[in-house]
Amino acid sequence: MDVSFIEAHKKYGTAVYHVMVKPVGPVCNLDCTYCYYLEKKKLYQGTASFRMADEVLESFTRQYLKSQDSPVVTFVWQGGEPTLLGKEFFEKALYYQKKYQKRGQTIENALQTNATLLDDDWGQFLAANGFLVGVSIDGPRQLHDHYRRDKRGNGTFQRVMKGIERLKAHHASFNTLTTVHNHNSQHPLEVYRFLKSIGSRFMQFIPIVEQMAEPKDNQALRMISPDSSTSGTVTEWSTNPLEYGRFLSTIFDEWVTRDVGEHYVQIFDATLANWVNQNPGLCVFGRTCGDTAVIEHNGDLYSCDHFVYHENHLGNILETPLVDLMKSQQQINFGFRKESDLPEKCKKCRYRPVCRGGCPKNRLIETDEPGKRLNYLCNGYQHFFGHIAPYMNFMADELKHRRPPANVMPYARRHLGR
């Protein structure tokens, strides 16, 4: 059963929740075309430094560990580019973790990075302290460099690969996060095979879907929330919905015939989990939202990484306890809106138990029901789920009989003629 943080708090009084930490806010050494976070600087006009102060770091660590009921607590560090803070910041973070760690509590750390600043010192530090490193890379050079460029407009692929080599040299654990946009979505197998070739065994494919509006002034955000009263248009670099579905389906065909149990694709695992009515472990396919917030450099807490807007500001942990902000009525309402705002067309869809409406930030398509929109990626998801249904049914049956899902591969090869 999929039980969200908010539901569990209401039913049991305790729960596990997650907070993504932005210790350097939106500051980054790159200038990726599609980045939705760089312009969040506008929310903090006049801020001289986006470096998380010791007071905020210590207070967050103490509150986060104290309020968690899980035996394993994970700190997720993201940006911007968190490695801009240097190893000294993370050494202090580890010190505070050890200081406030509860008895019997295991602490894990995950760092999302563009990898361009990783050297031997970083590789050694991350490996020695058991960090799981997520590397942002969009495919081979010609696909990666299309949008992932530095402040001077230069491609970053070579620097990313050097960073990955440093991680490998020190045996640091890493996985890959690949954004799927209008360019690389046309080359699914090239992307997938490249990621395998560099040693990625766990892959995330995140669709780029952003809508942009012309701001009234230079201080306003251009990338707007789906809740915004300002009308916007989907950006040219956003993935086409059906193309995204075909991208996933093409990769799935190769994975399901060769790589099950060897390479892990997050969206495939999450889909199978929902197929057998288990927790998908992926908020996009969860029934409700609200159990993963984001904390900014100054202690401000927002409902979600994709909803860092004034209207989604929950408060500041230096003024209000973290757990109280997570349990606030504002966050409860945010979490349950994912389900309550589904239009009838979505509710009647055969794939609703799997998709669950997708990420609310992508609900951009107007319906005849006021305030209720369809997910922009709806057609792509329907294509994908329809394509993989026979193999998901097979793997679900294997799990039911306590057999490994990898048994699907001979079946898939016969049906796909491979």
What does this structure look like?
The protein has 418 residues and is an alpha/beta fold. 38% of the residues lie in helices and 15% in strands. Strands 9-6-5-4-3-2-1-10-11-12 form a 10-stranded mixed beta sheet. A two-stranded antiparallel ribbon has the order 7-8. Helix 2 links the parallel strand 1 and strand 2. Helix 2 packs parallel to helix 3 and helix 8 packs across helix 15. The protein is globular, with a radius of gyration of 21 Å. The protein starts with a helix and ends with a helix.
Tally of extended strands?
Answer: 14
Alpha-beta classification: alpha/beta
In whole angstroms, the N-to-C terminal distance is 36 Å
Mean pLDDT: 94
Portion of residues in beta strands equals 5-15%
Largest sheet: 10 strands, mixed
Could you say which overall geometry the principal axes of the C-alpha atoms support? globular
Low-confidence stretches: 8-14
Order of helices and strands: HEHEHEHEHHEHEEEHEHEEEHHHHEEHH
Report helical residue fraction.
Answer: 25-40%
Count of DSSP helices? 15
Strand order of the largest sheet: 9-6-5-4-3-2-1-10-11-12
Radius of gyration: 21 Å
